[in-house]
Amino acid sequence: SVLEEFNLRGAMIAAQALKPDIAVQVDLLLAADTPDMRHVGEAALGQGPGISLYNFHGRGTLNGTIPHPALVALFAGGARTGGVALQRAANVGVLTDNSYVQLAGAGIACIDVGFPMRYSHSALEVCDLRDLDGLVRLIVEAARGIGPGFTLDRDATEP
Asked: Which of 59, 127, 133, 156 is packed most tightly, with the most Cβ within 10 A?
């Protein structure tokens, strides 16, 4: 979104105007499959797309996101249905537009999905095209799961 890398406020303004029920952030996951990144997490290139179960920036007024449980279940189900290997990530020092989108209005159910990438914000970003293909299939299958029986009621969500 506008200003995503600077202060994340563009998406929050859009969310205030649009009043969505759900926000799905499509971004990268930090690949941690090189020796210098093993302390950061476990996401690896070639192992499929992933969902973020927790991210927190930790500096200044920047916060993070814990995804809505119904959306975690929706994307996990989409991965099963679509035969997509699904990685899970939790990172400190990271945040996305959803960090502020979730705060718009009375609150918006959010989830961050993405593909593992090495060397983010450099001239040599690296990803595996199979992970991108899997991400497309994951999003399509998850979107198919939003229908008459889908609810954002936290008490109705199966783990």
From this structure: 127
